[in-house]
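re the bet — no i am not wrong, look at it urself. input seq straight from the record:
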Amino acid sequence: MSLDLTTPALLFPAITLLLLAYTNRFLTIAGLIRNLHSRYTEKPDSLIYGQIINLRKRVNLIKSMQVHGVFSLFLCVMCMFLLYAGYTTAGSFIFGAALLFLLWSLAISIFELHISVQALNIQLSDIENKPPPVA
């Protein structure tokens, strides 16, 4: 396989958009945690506590997603530098590592999404167990 300078550069927009999406997830969850924390300190509730525990797991997963994504971007830049300097074999290995870190970041994202859907299903099951309001 021939690897030139433009190949790792193709990942820049994808990784940047991915990191932006991860950051938006993080900020949304941080807002939820702050809101639930204030509600819990006013009136402790086991449902709110469970949600906070779930959100803590998700925040840690998002942090890991971001770290792996940033490291993938770092390795892409390193690969470009190595290719520019004429070290094509080393650049190829670094590019492969960048792809692996990106794959790992995406895999963690799928796991975090699964946890998010589970939390929503628990929340919805609470509503489903109650009779509908009479109109």
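see?? The chain has a mean pLDDT of 89. told u. also Residues 6-25+59-127 form one domain. so pay up
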